[in-house]
Write a structure and sequence with these properties.
Blueprint (H helix, E strand, L loop, with lengths): L7 E6 L5 H11 L3 E6 L4 E3 L8 E3 L5 H11 L1 H6 L2 H11 L17 E4 L2 H13 L7 E7 L5 H20 L4 H16 L3 E7 L1
Parallel strand pairs: 1-2, 1-5, 5-6
Antiparallel strand pairs: 3-4, 6-7
Length: about 200
């Protein structure tokens, strides 16, 4: 019997820190083939005030960021959840990666974002890439507030939807409209989606 093809999923937020990593962690534990990315120009994390964010380059290992924040103010960054979040991230992968630089990572069947601005950047990026294979990719957005609690909720919803898509791997294009409508009614969440090609 032929093994069923597995879909590849990409989870994308702005800095590849909270929402995309929570979903990456959860989908990975559920056995899905998943990667995660950010679309920003740099990785930005809250600092001591609104006007003093902590800024890092993509590719800076999570454990380096963890050590830097722990050195700066361990109490603040433990209290606001950044240190536990970074500890989780180090167990998932080495460092935040940028979506726009991911061409070498291969093709994804489903690209899932957690805010409209990120969705728009992904759609633009996909349309600007050279389309050689004419293999389609589904881009889905579900707005999720960028805090630890909402990231957990968003990850569970992303997992549910991705498992449904994985279950329909060969004919998801025929059922996607109905699947999204049902999901939106069930969870009272509005989704946006688009098709792109590799």
């Amino acid at each position: 019997m032929e093994a069923k093809r597995k879909m590849r999923f990409a989870m994308v937020c702005s800095s590849n820190m909270n929402r995309s990593m929570e979903a990456h962690s959860l989908l990975g534990r559920a056995g899905l083939d998943v990667a995660s990315y950010g679309t920003g120009t740099q990785v930005k994390l809250p600092g001591p005030s609104l006007h003093e964010p902590n800024v890092y380059d993509f590719g800076t290992p999570y454990n380096v960021i963890y050590d830097d924040l722990r050195r700066k103010d361990p109490d603040l960054y433990k209290r606001n959840g950044l240190l536990p979040m970074l500890k989780r991230n180090t167990s998932v992968k080495l460092a935040p990666q940028r979506w726009q630089d991911n061409a070498g990572d291969g093709l994804f069947d489903v690209i899932f974002s957690f805010e409209e601005r990120v969705f728009d950047l992904i759609v633009d990026d996909m349309h600007n890439r050279e389309q050689r294979m004419l293999k389609n990719a589904l881009i889905i957005n579900m707005d999720v507030k960028d805090n630890h609690e909402e990231a957990g909720v968003g990850a569970k919803l992303a997992l549910e939807l991705c498992q449904k898509l994985e279950g329909a791997v060969d004919d998801w294009e025929e059922i996607i409209d109905d699947l999204i409508i049902t999901f939106e009614k069930q969870h009272k969440r509005k989704l946006t989606y688009n098709m792109a090609f590799y």
